[in-house]
## 1
Amino acid sequence: MNPLTQGATQIVVPMAAAPSDPRAAAAKAAAFAAIEQAFGQEVDFLKTLVRHPSTRGQTNGVQHLVAATLHAMGLRVDEVPVEPERIAGRPGFSPADWPYDGLFQVVGTLPAAGAGGMAATGGRSLILNGHVDVVSPEPVGHWTRDPWAGEVAGGRMYGRGTGDMKAGVGAMIYALKAVQAAGIGLGGDVLVETVLDEECGGNGTLALLAQGYRAGAAVIPEPSGLGLTRAHLGVLWCRIRVRGRAAHAGAASRAVNAVEKAYVVLQAIKTLEAEANRPEARHPLYAAVEHPLNYNVGVIHGGDWPSSVPEACTLEVRFACYPGEALDAVQARLCDGVLRAAAADDWLREHPPELTFFGFRGEGAVYDLDGDLVRAVAASHAQVLGTPLPVGVSTASDDRRFFQLYHGIPAVCYGPIGGQLHAVDEWVDLESLRACTCVLAGVLIDWCGVA
Ligand SMILES: [Zn+2]
C-alpha cells in the first residue's frame, strides 16, 4: 500500500554529523557516479518488473526475476515459502482467507566485506524491503496506456505497480549494485527482501521476520514522494453480508431486495466515518489532515439477474483507525454502529447483517524521528536533493510496523514520487527514482559503514 503523504511539514530532522570518514564521502561519490552510469539499465529493469502482472497469488514470476538478478550480483539467495500456520499466532498477523501454496518470497544476503564479518568491521546490518504484489488494474479499458507495458513518457513510467512499489524495489537493488560497482565493501550485512501480500495485510514481511531474517534497521522504499512519514494508520478489512428475500421481479414489491438493504448498511458506514473524522476525535498528528480516516466500500456483490430480486448482497470494506487504537475495540465499535443502524430498519432488525473481519488487520503506529536511521536518511536526502527532508503522516498503512512494533527494528519508508496509486494510469517519476536510488546508496554506506 502506498504511504500517501499528507500534512507534510518542514520539521527539521537532525542529520548525522557530516561524515568525518573521508572514505565514506569518497564511497558515496563513486556510488552516485555508478547510479548515473547504470540509470538506463535501472529503468529497463523497472520496465521488466512492471511487465509481470503480479497481483495477489501471481507473484512467482516477478520473484524469479528478482532472485536471478540478486544471484547474478553474487548474493546468497533464499526462496522462502509463506507458512500461515507458523505466523497465525504472531502479533500483526492478518487472517488471510486465500492460499499461499507454491508461492515464495526472496531474500538476498550480501555479507559484510572482509573475513571477520560484522564482528571485525563493527558495522551494522540493514534490510531493504519492498513488496512485489500489486492491486488489480481493472477496469483496464479506462487506462490510456497498457497497465503492464511500463511505457515511458514525459519523464514518467506508467503502469500498475510502477509507483507502488516496483520503482522502490528497483531502487533498492540498483543502490546495492552501485555500491558493488564502485568497489565499496560494506561493513554490515545487507538483506534485500521482496515480499508478497503487503496490499492485503503484510503476512509476507511478518513471515520473513518469523523465519529469522533480522537486521539492525530496515528501509522500505514505498512511494513516499522523497519524504518521510512519521505515522501511519491502522487498517481493518470487513466483509458484510446482507440478506434479502428473493422473488420474481414481478413480485418485487412483496419481496426484500438485498441490494437495496445493503444501501442502509452503506449509509451507516458513511455516518460512522463522519463521526470518526470529527476534529475532536482525531489523533493530534492528523489534526491538519483534511479527511484522515477513509471507510472505503471497495467491493460490492449482489444479485445475478435483472428479473430476480437478489437474496444476498455482500460489501467488502476497508476501515481505518488512528495509531494507538486497539483493533479489537475499533472492531467492536464498528460492529455496534452498523448493527444499531440496521436495527432502525424493520427487515434488518430481524435479519441483521453479518460482519466478518478478514484479511488486512494492521495497527496504526507513530515512529521516532530522532534515531540514527532517520538521521542517516535525512543526511543522505539533503546531500542528494539539497533540501531538508519533508516529514508528513500517511493515511494508509505499510509494512514498517512489523519491524518496529513487533521486533524492535527501527524502520523507515522513503521512496520515489508516484501518482494514481491503486488507480488508472499509475505512474512513477523517473528523476525521483534516480534521486531515491542515490539516497538509498548513501544510507547503505552511512548505516553499514565502509569496511
Ligand atoms: Zn505499497
## 2
Amino acid sequence: MRLQDSVVLLTGATGGMGQAILAQLVATGASVTAVGRDTAALAELDKRYGASIVTIAADLGIPDDRRHLTQLMQHTTGFNLLINAAGVNDFALFEDQDDEQICDMINVNLTATLLMTKSLLPLLKKASESCVVVMGSTFGAIGYPGFASYCATKFALRGFSEALRRELADTRVGVLYLAPRATRTGMNSRAVEEMNAALGVRMDSPETVARCLITSLENDMSEVHLGYPERLFIRLNGLLPQLVSRSLRKQLSTIRQFANTPVEKP
Ligand SMILES: NC(=O)c1ccc[n+]([C@@H]2O[C@H](COP(=O)([O-])OP(=O)(O)OC[C@H]3O[C@@H](n4cnc5c(N)ncnc54)[C@H](OP(=O)(O)O)[C@@H]3O)[C@@H](O)[C@H]2O)c1
C-alpha cells in the first residue's frame, strides 16, 4: 500500500516500537493518530511532531476509551491503516504469575486488539486500500518457557490474523501479522535482557522492526517473521516440535534462574 497519503491509527505509540514506527510513518508523509496512556510521553510526541500527528490518551483495556477512539476515527477523513502495536508482557514462570497480570495480558494484547479491529473495520472497508496490522511475536509461533500467558495471546493473534485475512480476501482490506523477535524496548526487564545474553538470543532495535513494518506494508505482505535463526526455529517447531522441545529443555534451568530474579523496570 501507499503510505505517503495514509491516515493511521497507531496504538502503543508511546512504547519503544511505537515511537520508532511513528517516526518512520511521519517521515513517509502519513498522518497519524498516536495512542498511549502515558500523558507525559504523549506530550513529548506532540512537541516532536507538531501538526503531523494527533495524540490521544486512552487505556485500551477500558471499553469507554475504545469507544471514544472509534468515534474519533469516524470523524477522521481517509482513515485507512490500523496498527495494533500496544501490548504487555510479564516474564515469569506461569504458576508464579498473578491472576491479574494474566487477565491484563489477555485483555490488552488480545481482547482490545480484536475489539478495536472489529469496531474500525467498517471504516477501513470504505477506503480504496486499507490494512490492519497485528503486532505478533516469535512467541506467537514458538511456545517459550517463562512466557506461557504471553504466548497464549500471541498464538491467538496469529490465528486471528490468518482467519480475518481469509475472511476479508474479497475486500480491499489487508491484514498484516508482523512478528518481531526479541527487541530492545522497555517491555523487556533487565532479567530478560540478561537471560537473552546468556542464551545467545539476539535482540533487534525498535528501528529495525519499524523499517520492516514499513517495507512489509509497502509490499503488501501478509505474515512476516523477523530474524534468523528465529524463522528457522519456527519452521522446525511446526514440523518437528520435539526437536525444539529438546533444545529448550537444555535452556530450562537458565530460564528458571532468570525468571526467579526480582523484576526491576528501567
Ligand atoms: N519488545 C519485544 O521484545 C517484543 C518482541 C515481539 C513483539 N513485541 C510486541 O510489540 C508491541 C510493542 O511492544 P514494545 O516492545 O514497544 O513495548 P513497550 O515499549 O513496553 O510499549 C508498549 C506500548 O503498549 C502500550 N500499552 C500497554 N498497555 C496499554 C493499555 N492498557 N492501553 C493502551 N496502551 C497500552 C504502552 O502505552 P503506555 O506506555 O503509554 O502505557 C506502550 O505504548 C507489543 O505488542 C509487543 O507484544 C515486543
